[in-house]
Design a protein that fits this description.
Low-confidence stretches: 96-106, 215-251, 295-299, 325-345, 485-492, 524-529
Number of strands: 10
Strand order of the largest sheet: 1-7-5-4-3-6
Shape: globular
Number of helices: 15
Structural class: alpha+beta
Distance between the termini: 63 Å
Radius of gyration: 30 Å
Helix content: 40-55%
Mean pLDDT: 75
Length: 529
């Protein structure tokens, strides 16, 4: 796929198709930004979008190399909105009509309705590189690799810039009285930031912008120019004649058009609702079919995780007999442990995935439904000690092995929360179902401290376990715990085993973290009464 700079060069050389590709690529961004600022008046948003792309056609040859087109178009939209916005406000105040508004109160998202009026103003106040990073990530749905290429940096630098820009945007919105978190802000922008533009609008804009922008000198024949001008005069003459002939029926026609427009809007909304219901029904049917299909690989994985859990329990019991404390030090080539035959009546819950976490970042992951009506989350913060060389360690069985000095210490918190209380901890939007799925969210320092503080004194029906896992680059470590809390008085909910395998990045500032979780629920005979 050609990048923006290549398309601009081709347009400058006379390619109308190149300009059409730019319109198709960025029309949703421009139309959505205009729609937010014009308070949902779609006909004005269409006019603004046409004006913005006309400006792009006129100024394409003068744009500096390296211009991020998403940021340039967003700024152009902010300038273009000014006069139509004032006109629309006067019209609404004078006529007190709302039939042209496309926003339905029934469909309004409270979080989005709080952010929407101030979002574009806050973006406009940001540093251009930060604004471009957010526009590319959440409004253009670009990957971190693509964002890095557009901004002239690497993927890791792009990820850090997006995280910093989100925090700055949250602070700017906070100055307008908008209260939200970084994770909630990123979710609502990704879900609501882009509106679909009318299907015929892209073609209309491309044609009019090319004519107004001077593309006719390179991409159209003289005959086409004359024909365009002649058609414009002809249309003007026809409209003038129609105005004179129909002046006596203008009021009746206006009322009829308004009635038809309202009916058409109602039918369109019904059609869209029906299409959404059909799509959701098909999605649920596919999920049911997938759940009913046998999956030998998942069964094998569950058996493997069950055996690993038994080994982890025996290892943990041995360590506790030797010394008190919660720290778990990784060992290599542990001795094989004999496990009792598993209880086939109780299938354990397992989850396995890999994610990247930077040094001292706080990662919230999980959202798994490990028991009916409850969700399990893991909160972990890695601390990387990038020392060089190796040291000799002694395993519990007396054998010796070498361990890299590049040590990684994980401060972990495992929590099981009733679904009815997820919102109390700000976790209501972080849910995942299935052994191979999870939700990951990197928290800002203040949000992480607030969450961990809240989990230190949980309600009676929230189970929490804090611990530390110490391991090294490329070395697996695990920690096991029983799912109950004498302080909170909650009943036992099973045995948890967490396995972590960190692989340091080349610069030793982050880890590619392999995570394995197993929850072995108690059998009926073991469940508390």
């Amino acid at each position: 796929m050609l990048d923006d700079q290549q398309l601009l060069r081709r347009y400058a050389e006379g390619s109308e198709a190149a300009f059409g590709e730019l319109v198709a690529r960025y029309l949703p961004l421009v139309y959505s930004a205009a729609l937010r600022q014009i308070n949902g008046a779609s006909h004005l948003a269409e006019d603004i979008a046409q004006q913005v792309f006309t400006d792009l056609a006129r100024k394409a040859n003068s744009l500096p190399d390296g211009t991020v087109l998403a940021g340039w178009l967003h700024r152009a939209t902010r300038f273009a909105v000014g006069q139509p916005l004032r006109t629309e406000r006067r019209r609404v105040a004078r006529e007190q009509e709302s039939c042209s508004m496309n926003i339905s109160d029934a469909d309004a998202d409270p979080e989005w309705e709080q952010v929407r009026p101030w979002l574009d103003e806050a973006l406009d106040k940001m540093d251009p590189l930060d604004r471009d990073a957010l526009l590319l990530r959440f409004f253009e749905q670009r990957s971190l690799k693509e964002i890095g290429a557009a901004l002239g940096s690497g993927e890791e630098a792009a990820r850090k810039r997006v995280a910093r820009a989100l925090e700055k945007l949250r602070e700017l919105l906070g100055s307008r009285g908008v209260t939200t978190s970084v994770s909630a802000l990123s979710l609502v922008m990704a879900a609501k930031g882009i509106e679909s533009a009318p299907s015929q609008l892209a073609g209309t804009i491309s044609a009019s912008a090319l004519v107004a922008g001077g593309a006719t000198a390179t991409g159209m024949t003289a005959y086409q120019i004359v024909r365009t001008i002649a058609m414009s005069h002809l249309k003007t003459a026809i409209l003038a004649a129609a105005a004179v002939a129909g002046i006596t029926t203008a009021v009746i026609q206006h009322q009829t058009v308004e009635k038809l427009r309202a009916e058409n809007l109602s039918l369109l909304e019904q059609s869209q609702s029906f299409a959404e219901l059909q799509s959701e029904n098909q999605r649920l049917s596919n999920l049911v079919a997938q759940a009913q299909r046998p999956s030998p690989s998942k069964d094998q994985n569950a058996e493997l995780m069950r055996l690993r859990g038994q080994v982890g329990v025996l290892r943990d019991q041995l360590r506790k007999a030797q010394a008190a404390g919660h720290s778990t030090v990784a060992t290599q080539n542990p001795a094989q442990a004999k496990s009792e035959p598993p209880d086939d009546a109780v299938q354990p819950f397992t989850a396995a995935f890999t994610t990247r976490v930077a040094d001292k970042e706080t990662l919230v992951t999980g959202g798994w439904s490990t028991s009916p009506g409850r969700r399990t989350f893991m909160v972990m913060t890695p601390n990387i000690d990038p020392a060089e060389g190796v040291t000799t360690q002694v395993a519990t069985d007396g054998s010796k092995f070498d361990m890299p000095n590049a040590k990684v210490t994980f401060n972990t918190t495992t929590v099981e929360i009733p679904e009815t209380k997820l919102a109390q901890f700000g976790l209501d939007q972080l849910k995942a179902d299935g052994n191979d799925s999870s939700v990951q969210s990197v928290l800002a320092a203040a949000d992480a401290d607030a969450l961990i503080t809240a989990l230190k004194t949980p309600p009676d029906d929230v189970w929490v376990s804090h611990g530390t896992i110490i391991t090294a680059d490329g070395v697996s470590a695990s920690m096991s715990m029983i799912g109950n809390s004498s302080d909170a008085g909650t009943p036992a909910s099973g045995q948890y085993t967490i396995g972590l395998t960190p692989t340091l990045t080349a610069d030793k500032t982050a880890v590619n973290l392999g995570v394995n979780l197993q929850v072995v629920r108690p059998s009926v005979s073991e469940a508390p009464r």
